[in-house]
């Protein structure tokens, strides 16, 4: 359940912009999910196989 303050914030902002408040909440949540997914991808260590692949590609183009 969302807090009343959160809903009111998005309703006020949506009304000013002529948009739907639920659509705006969804967009905000999607942005957080995308950012978290990006962070997760950056935090994963590189595997030996990936390192070898990158080195081969870089040495091939050099």
UniProtKB/TrEMBL annotation:
<dbReference type="Pfam" id="PF14384">
    <property type="entry name" value="BrnA_antitoxin"/>
</dbReference>
<dbReference type="InterPro" id="IPR025528">
    <property type="entry name" value="BrnA_antitoxin"/>
</dbReference>
<protein>
    <recommendedName>
        <fullName>CopG family transcriptional regulator</fullName>
    </recommendedName>
</protein>
């Amino acid at each position: 359940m969302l807090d009343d303050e959160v809903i009111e914030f998005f309703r006020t902002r949506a009304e000013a912009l002529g948009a739907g408040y639920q659509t705006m909440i969804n967009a905000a949540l999607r942005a957080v999910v995308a950012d978290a997914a990006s962070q997760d991808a950056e935090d994963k260590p590189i595997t030996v196989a990936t390192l070898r692949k990158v080195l081969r590609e870089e040495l091939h183009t050099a």
